[in-house]
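Incident log, entry 3
Record: YtxH domain-containing protein (121 residues)
Problem: checksum mismatch between cached and fresh output.
Input:
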Amino acid sequence: MANGKSLLLGLMVGGAISAAATLLTTPSSGKDLRGRVKDQGFEWKDMIANLKQDGLRLKEQLTETSKEGAALIKELTQEMKKSVEEWKQTVEPHQENIHQYLEQIETSLKDLEEKVKSQQA
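Fresh output:
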């Protein structure tokens, strides 16, 4: 917001300076000059109103985009949680089988070691 205010202030100051320079350097009649200054004032007023409308539209778009982003992140998080749960459900039965298989291998190795020791003695 500070940048927007700075821009607006810069435009106003620049407009005032250019209007003053025009007043001081113009060889026109007073009536003609007042008409041009009045027209320029209306143009500046319209430009400021347009800038304000554009700023409000930008604010609305940013708000909408942030809401959509938050909803998307929430949905993505839920999908990730669901995927992790499904993975756990898929892997857990296999973990038990692998654990049992490793225990069987360990037991077989112990039996084999005992047989080798008994044959050597």
